[in-house]
Write a structure and sequence with these properties.
Radius of gyration of chain A: 15 Å
Largest interface: A-B, 38 and 34 residues
CATH class of chain A: Alpha Beta
Shape of chain A: globular
Helix content of chain A: 40-55%
CATH topology of chain A: Rossmann fold
Strand order of the largest sheet of chain A: 2-1-3-4
Number of helices of chain A: 5
Oligomer: homopentamer
CATH architecture of chain A: 3-Layer(aba) Sandwich
Largest sheet of chain A: 4 strands, parallel
Number of domains of chain A: 1
Number of strands of chain A: 4
Chain lengths: ~150, ~150, ~150, ~150, ~150
Amino acid sequence: MKKIGIADTTFARYDMGGAAIDEIKKNASGIKVERYTVPGIKDLPVAAKKLINSGCEIVMALGMPGPQPIDKQCAHEASLGLIAVQLMTDTHVIEVFVHEDEAEDDRELKWLAERRTREHALNAIALLFHPEKLTEKAGTGQRQGFDDAKPL
Amino acid sequence: MKKIGIADTTFARYDMGGAAIDEIKKNASGIKVERYTVPGIKDLPVAAKKLINSGCEIVMALGMPGPQPIDKQCAHEASLGLIAVQLMTDTHVIEVFVHEDEAEDDRELKWLAERRTREHALNAIALLFHPEKLTEKAGTGQRQGFDDAKPL
Amino acid sequence: MKKIGIADTTFARYDMGGAAIDEIKKNASGIKVERYTVPGIKDLPVAAKKLINSGCEIVMALGMPGPQPIDKQCAHEASLGLIAVQLMTDTHVIEVFVHEDEAEDDRELKWLAERRTREHALNAIALLFHPEKLTEKAGTGQRQGFDDAKPL
Amino acid sequence: MKKIGIADTTFARYDMGGAAIDEIKKNASGIKVERYTVPGIKDLPVAAKKLINSGCEIVMALGMPGPQPIDKQCAHEASLGLIAVQLMTDTHVIEVFVHEDEAEDDRELKWLAERRTREHALNAIALLFHPEKLTEKAGTGQRQGFDDAKPL
Amino acid sequence: MKKIGIADTTFARYDMGGAAIDEIKKNASGIKVERYTVPGIKDLPVAAKKLINSGCEIVMALGMPGPQPIDKQCAHEASLGLIAVQLMTDTHVIEVFVHEDEAEDDRELKWLAERRTREHALNAIALLFHPEKLTEKAGTGQRQGFDDAKPL
């Protein structure tokens, strides 16, 4: 049985981990989910690595960086760490970051966090079980959260 | 007996290391603490690694970056190093940085350094002994130092 | 038989992977191509590494970063990851990124994505089969996509 | 006999290496010093690593970045490299960088380069022989070069 | 017989590789030179690593970043990669980058590319055969290309 890891934070203002788990359960059977919650996004890389060490074949790393420059810097550092984890383990870690200033108000932010997480959960499942489905959509302007972009 | 490492600096203007140790002792029994003080935040990554090498199962890395652009750059470099340490050792290093320009005056800065350190000490204990308590708070907007954010 | 890896994204708004494969097939015989599509550019480094692990002797990493600052940051992170992959594997990964704001409109963007991809496909073939052809052009201001620069 | 490495540059406008060696000799006996001079600050990381490989138990990396944005970027890259060296070797490398624009004129710049280097030489000795002395000063606002900051 | 590696690009607008080889041959006997040309500066790190793998004891990495922000970012990424190569191999890689906006016109740019390359070729020879000559010039404000800076 394949295992998916969910790394999330207490810093986030929405339960992205819960949404991810729900979407995975709805769309794939015979999957085990392991969840690991850390304080903030900069704790996500080692959490993702530990999830992989414990047998997860793919990990979703979920976080909500704040709107200040320091928050952007933290997100940048976390992203670099998440890429490093992937290269150290040859395993995908799908980063799902929702920046507070992407949305106009809390209502939209909540909608965005929920939707981006769920759409990326489907990406994780595709990478794990049906990578050819991603190739079918190559170069088509797929976005997670807001509307897809227009293919050229 | 589990051992927690405390890496701090002579550069900081407040004894964050002392506050961390006090908070840990108050909230966990049967824990050994090892402290390693270095000149500045860019010396913290190797200090954290050495603490882990000597048996610490988690490390707190405490620092107070100054307000200038070069200080921000140093903090960024230190943060990347702390993430690298974690990935090399599969061990959490809780970064507790208090930027001088986060507070309006010295009094608030002192309050912030003390409070953020103590709140992160509790995070360290939770990661070490009760990780499920963090999952209970996943996505609830927890902050360390200033007030928590509003969950969406 | 040598194998070239093509890593591309569903995020891109043009089928750069298709263009790369077409150009390779037109210009080299007895080559096998393996394609790996991921959601976004930050997923490219691990995809490139997996392609190399599966026997590819060179990889093209194709992506179309958006025009926002956060997109630039993602591209920067992806680029650092692609360089890391190369150093971990001693294998070239040709990065082909087309930034949305490089072109004045969608028509030019499409032209640029197509042309840069095809020109870099020729670079990949040269690196793999005829590295001396690149030395013949050393210092001559070669560009991929827009016009070459003027040699001094 | 313990060995301290001194990595410096021909780019610097002051003989920081000489000052470091003089301060070390004045304050510690039975120490061997090995010096390695490179062209610029971006050559310091590998120089520091080679010094450690040859038996140095701590290294001082001395440099004087210029005032332009590109100089700042070079310093940033060098700093990241110096942190990497430390994590690869579990050995401290004390970075002593004096930025040209920190001082108002050449006279102050010379004073700063001399003083910061000497103060950090004492830090290196403390880390090597008396780490407890640094813990005594933890959180007290120590600076190297300009005046110490005020403890909160 | 010692071997020096020359990594250069087809992107550069001047034959820096040719200038480097000429300067090396003029100033050192009994040296073998191996040249490796890649498309752009971000391909230089792996090229440098391959040159080292094939026996080069030092490498010069030659490039001419363009004047746009994205070019600066590419140069930054390449520089980080070149530092990583050095730390992975304990071997110097002398980065010789000439930024287009350093010169006022094409004539000066050509002069700068030629002169900086040749001056760094001498640094490479010094590092390889006479490191003590660099120590003699430590802290004297040496520059490559434009005039040396004034020692303090």
